[in-house]
Design brief:
Layout (H helix, E strand, L loop, with lengths): L62 E5 L8 H14 L4 E6 L4 H5 L11 H5 L11 E2 L5 E4 L5 H7 L9 H6 L8 E6 L5 H9 L2 E7 L8 H14 L5 E10 L4 H14 L3 E7 L3 H8 L3 H4 L4 H15 L1
Parallel strand pairs: 1-5, 1-6, 2-4, 2-5, 6-7, 7-8
Antiparallel strand pairs: 3-4
Helix pairs in contact: 1-11
Bound molecules: adenosine-5'-diphosphate (ADP) and magnesium ion (MG).
Length: about 325
């Protein structure tokens, strides 16, 4: 029997993740790129040309988008990071809000949020912390982050007894929305009070939807929650779009689910579809967006195309 530790495990039991070398060529991704050259996109609709978004001559106030789906692992955090980074390439100033106590958004940008003593939790609970002192820069120019860590899980309980508990995030963000063009709120996988806060603070909701059969089930409940928030808390709330993620153009299953999604939600579904590729887990380990990690990859191109659609909607 070998006495060596298994690969990836150091003495002492800490797991070491080896970072995949940065790809010299992103050509392998193109195999998974849209298969059709007939003018039909992966949604089955004709491809539309979305023009280059005009540059802005001044910034703010931001459009606030909640990236929301109560199912975990559907691409919320990945989409928040990469859409945010892609928006900056079009000259937009972006603030990402990590609104999941798991802190995956912060970690995905290489920020050790568990070591921070000032996070969005402190600003949200009005603990005399200035929001501007919580905002941190990221590796992407013009993209800032409001980090979070496990402290935020206490907010869900503590907010229950607050007056105006559903509007805590709206109040918290108010002083800085003027500084940005987009604020993207990465929600936790639940429809609890934190998510309701994100919906109450948002102008629009972006719903990532995994191209798997069971992922369709929860969407009705999510849309029901969005409708209630619109009626009771935030009349301007809109569904900006449904983003199909983890699409595999080679499988019939993926294509069938895609067809069902378009049938059910029509024009709400973005033309842009995010293919399943190992590049995304790699970027998490690298702690940077795919737009900088593998800038010419199909994944980077897809999030740039999504950014155009979001700006145009
Ligand atoms: N298009 C994709 N293809 C393959 N893996 C993906 C894709 N998008 C995200 N992932 C991976 O799937 C996992 C869950 O994604 P994540 O964005 O964290 O989902 P959520 O925030 O909804 O829980 C992560 O490991 C991520 O790297
Ligand atoms: Mg997440």
């Amino acid at each position: 029997m070998s006495t060596l530790p298994p690969p990836g495990v150091r003495h002492g039991g800490t797991v070491e993740l080896s970072i995949a070398p940065r790809a010299a060529s992103d050509a392998d991704d193109d195999l998974l790129d849209d298969v059709s050259s007939t003018g039909t996109g992966p949604t089955g609709r004709p491809r539309r040309h979305i023009p280059e978004p005009p540059l802005l001559d001044r910034h703010g106030p931001a459009r606030v988008l909640a990236v929301c789906n109560q199912k975990g692992g559907v691409g919320k955090t990945t989409s928040t990071i990469n859409l945010g980074a892609a928006l900056t390439e079009f000259g937009r100033r972006v603030l990402l809000v990590d609104f999941d106590p798991q802190g995956a958004l912060s970690v995905g940008l290489g920020i050790p949020a568990h070591q921070l003593d000032r996070t969005i939790y402190n600003a949200l609970m009005g603990q005399g912390v200035e929001l501007r002192d919580v905002v941190v820069g990221t590796c992407v120019e013009n993209m800032d982050l409001l980090p979070s860590n496990i402290d935020l899980s206490a907010a869900e309980v503590q907010l229950v007894s607050e007056v105006g508990r559903e509007h805590a995030l709206l109040r918290t963000l108010r002083p800085i929305v003027a500084d940005y063009d987009f604020v993207l709120v990465d929600c936790q996988p639940s429809l609890g009070l934190l998510t309701v806060n994100a919906l109450a603070a948002a102008d629009g909701v972006l719903i990532p939807l995994e191209c798997e059969f069971f992922s369709l089930r929860g969407v009705a409940l999510l849309i029901d929650t969005i409708d209630k928030v619109r009626e009771r808390l935030n009349p301007k709330l809109d569904i900006t779009g449904i983003l199909a993620t983890m699409f595999d153009p080679r499988t019939l299953h993926s294509r069938e689910v895609m067809a069902r999604v378009v049938e059910a939600f029509g024009e709400t579904v973005f033309d842009t579809v995010i293919n399943r590729t190992v590049r995304f887990p790699e970027t998490t380990v690298a702690g940077e967006p795919i737009t900088t990690w593998a800038p010419r990859s199909a994944g980077a191109r897809a999030y740039r195309q999504l950014a155009r659609e979001v700006i145009a909607r």
